[in-house]
Structures are given as C-alpha cells and as structure tokens.
Design brief:
This protein is mostly helical and 86 residues long. It has one domain. The chain is 71% helix and 0% strand. Helix 1 runs parallel beside helix 5, helix 2 crosses helix 3 and helix 3 crosses helix 5. The protein is globular and about 30 Å long.
Length: 86
C-alpha cells in the first residue's frame, strides 16, 4: 500500500469517487449526518483511491491510520475552506 501517494491521489479524485465512497459507507450503516465527518467514509474513500480493501486501511497500526485519515480529513476540510473563501 502506497500511503506516500495519498496527497496526489486526493488531488486527482473526482466527485464520482466521493459519491461511491459515501454510498459504500451508507450501505454499511453509517448515518453520520454530514458524511465528511465520518471516519468510516474517509477510510473507504482512501481505500478506493489506493485500490485496496477498506480492511487494509482499518488494519493499519493506529498511528499510521490516524496519519492517513488525517490527510483525507485535511484535504476534505481544506477544500471546504477554500470554497468558503471564494
């Protein structure tokens, strides 16, 4: 798994990637009102972008998991902040 490519993959991600990850999270019972706050959604999105099963992300040692999810979180909320500034 190439965790060093997370930033690059997030930059290349599309709305379709987001929608597919949300659909998967919802099918797994995630009822977080705003899906971007869901760690499960973020793990699914990352797994999809990396082309690995979500279990591979969930099974990372906690420090690596938190670092990886932190990058997804920063990307999602950084994008929201950039849109709000415009």
């Amino acid at each position: 798994m190439e965790l060093e490519k997370i930033d690059e993959l997030l930059e290349k991600s599309t709305g379709t990637d987001f929608i597919q990850a949300e659909r998967q999270a919802r099918l797994l019972g995630d009822s977080t009102p705003s899906i971007v706050f869901s760690v499960k959604f973020q793990a699914i999105l990352l797994a999809n972008l990396l082309g690995v099963p979500v279990e591979d992300i969930e099974d990372l040692p906690m420090q690596k998991f938190v670092t990886a999810i932190g990058k997804v979180n920063a990307f999602l909320f950084g994008q929201a902040a950039a849109v709000a500034e415009k």
